[in-house]
């Protein structure tokens, strides 16, 4: 299993406020790179979109809300099994957030997909920080 982590960002809202925003998958659209994602469709529980190259990705929540500090999203549509964990926890002056992807990538797929996935998750983390503002030190 290949693990791909985003950077951890510190934002100026409470963990509860950030969790509330992230658990509605409609809100995922605003965190994705618009120049690389097309045809976003979302509901509170599911989201799908096409990425460059025409691959459609589907994400489905595994529970109604965060379980502790983690919201797990099961992936579908890709030529490999994966899930995303949105991690959110309390921090001084706000919350900490990061994305973890665990993907079943064979060596060939890892070579092709790892860098684009890393870039996608870094973008998502950066978009969370931009949307909610960095936490003050």
Can you walk me through this structure?
This protein has 137 residues and is an alpha+beta fold. The chain has one domain (2-132): Alpha-D-Glucose-1,6-Bisphosphate, Chain A, domain 4 (2-Layer Sandwich). 25% of the residues lie in helices and 38% in strands. The chain has 2 helices and 8 strands; from the N terminus they run ββαββββββα. Strands 1, 2, 3, 4, 5, 6, 7 and 8 form an 8-stranded antiparallel sheet that branches. It is globular and about 40 Å long.
- Summarize the helix and strand pattern as letters: EEHEEEEEEH
Coarse shape: globular
- Beta-strand fraction estimate: 35-45%
End-to-end span in angstroms?
Answer: 36 Å
The low-pLDDT segments are: none
CATH class: Alpha Beta
CATH superfamily (homologous) name: START domain
Average pLDDT figure: 90
Radius of gyration: 14 Å
User: What is the architecture at the second tier of CATH?
Assistant: 2-Layer Sandwich
- The total count of helices amounts to 2
Class computed from helices, strands and strand pairing? alpha+beta
CATH topology: Alpha-D-Glucose-1,6-Bisphosphate, Chain A, domain 4
Q: Provide the domain count.
A: 1
């Amino acid at each position: 299993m290949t693990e791909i982590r985003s950077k951890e960002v510190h934002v100026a809202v409470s963990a509860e406020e950030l969790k509330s925003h992230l658990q509605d998958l409609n809100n995922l659209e605003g965190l994705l790179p618009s120049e690389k994602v097309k045809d976003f469709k979302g509901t509170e529980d599911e989201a799908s979109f096409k990425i460059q190259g025409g691959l459609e990705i589907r994400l489905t929540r595994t529970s109604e809300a965060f379980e502790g500090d983690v919201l797990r999203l099961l992936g579908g549509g890709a030529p490999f099994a994966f899930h995303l964990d949105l991690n959110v926890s309390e921090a001084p002056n706000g919350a900490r957030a990061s994305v973890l992807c665990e993907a079943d990538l064979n060596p060939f797929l890892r070579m092709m997909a790892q860098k684009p996935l890393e870039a996608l998750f870094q973008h998502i983390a950066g978009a969370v920080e931009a949307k909610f503002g960095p936490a003050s030190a």
